[in-house]
Design goal:
About 40% of the residues lie in helices and about 15% in strands. The chain is an alpha/beta fold and about 375 residues long. Helix 1 packs across helix 4. It comes from Triticum aestivum.
């Protein structure tokens, strides 16, 4: 398997080497005539890809419908026209095949960005992601670097059922050799994707389909082509003193809504946007818990062996003596995702679930 991936990558690597001189003449990254006040997550991801491809000819995209169709969710819109079919590669419907080729290309010093139409489909390619990509640097004693990004929508979508609506953050965060990132805002999406593409290690980049069209305030410095968000650093989205709420991806928005409701009841909640699941910012989480003395974790994934379970254990290990209440864990229901909208809502954490958990932690349950 490893040899096959290497051989495939060598062929693609040789091909790409011949294309690099032409690719280096790619037009400069887009410039904005005026600083926008808002940016959608889709625009943030697209601009990050555009700028990194312009800055580094070794960066290329591959996946199903990333070129002619401009991406199933239009994340790669306009990139085929700008960079051509040699750097924006439409692939057959064979995740195992094109992921293996991507890993082989990374062995040869290129920087592939591999898109999965949904991370549920990455299960077809998990052998290459883990056995070919994640373990190679360690098994080669540092001689083989695998600078590759696996990206696409992850977690619950809307009305697409069990085979398209699962969170894989805990799955991939379990594996040494991988970095796992989960953006929430446009700033996260733009900065983390840039950092992922520049990173020398394989990165699993978990987006959320329902966030693609959501707009967020954007600062001028975020639009600078050199901007990136450091991997492994959480962000305090809202400061508080009574209870810490950790969340990632779409659940950060829910946590912020819950914090606003709690504030009207006299509870000051601190909301931490994890951004990076592996490495996990244990220092930021524990520092917050030592201030608030309470913890609520929120995730869409299944509860057993989940991200929340790891966070809770981190706090037990490092800050147990600071806790004034049992930790609270909010997760998706322990069932495959239903199709029906009413059942789907019951299977995914809601704002009111977070509010109730925070009130329990503060001993203010109604």
């Amino acid at each position: 398997m490893l040899g096959a991936a290497r051989r495939s990558g060598c062929v693609l690597g040789q091909l790409m080497q011949t294309l690099r001189p032409a690719a280096s003449a790619a037009t400069a990254a887009r410039s904005y005539s005026a600083t926008p006040k808002e940016m959608t997550v889709r625009e943030a991801l697209n601009s990050a890809l555009d700028e990194e491809m312009s800055a580094d000819p070794s960066v290329f995209l591959m996946g199903e419908e990333v070129g002619e169709y401009q991406g199933a969710y239009k994340i790669t819109k306009g990139l085929l026209d700008k960079y051509g079919p040699d750097r924006v590669l439409d692939t057959p419907i064979t995740e195992a095949g094109f992921t293996g080729i991507g890993v082989g290309a990374a062995y040869q010093g290129l920087r592939p960005v591999v898109e999965f139409m949904t991370f549920n489909f990455s299960m077809q390619a998990i052998d290459h992601i883990i056995n070919s990509a994640a373990k190679s640097n360690y098994m080669s004693a540092g001689q083989i670097s695998v600078p590759i990004v696996f990206r696409g929508p992850n977690g619950a979508a809307a009305g697409v059922g069990a085979q398209h609506s699962q969170c894989y953050a805990a799955w991939y965060a379990h594996v040494p050799g991988l970095k796992v990132l989960t953006p929430y805002s446009a700033e996260d999406a733009r900065g983390l994707l840039k950092a992922a593409i520049r990173d020398p290690d394989p990165v699993v980049f978990l987006e959320n389909e329902l966030l693609y069209g959501e707009s967020f305030p954007i600062k001028a410095e975020v639009l600078d082509s050199s901007f990136s968000v450091p991997i492994g650093k959480a962000k305090i989205e809202r400061e508080g003193k009574d209870v810490t709420i950790t969340a990632f991806s779409k659940m950060v928005g829910y946590a912020l809504q819950a914090a606003e409701i709690l504030s009207k009841e006299g509870i000051s909640a601190e909301v931490i946007n994890l951004r990076s699941i592996r490495p996990l910012d244990r220092a930021a989480i524990n520092a917050s818990v030592r201030k608030t003395n309470r913890l609520v974790t929120v995730e869409e994934g299944f509860p057993q062996h989940g991200v929340g379970a790891e966070i809770c254990m981190s706090v037990v290990e490092d800050s147990f003596e600071y806790l004034d209440a049992p930790v609270e864990r909010i997760a998706g229901a322990d069932v495959p995702m239903p199709y029906a909208a009413n059942l789907e809502r019951l299977a995914v954490p809601q704002v009111e679930d977070i509010v109730r958990a925070a009130k329990r932690a503060c001993y203010r349950s109604s």
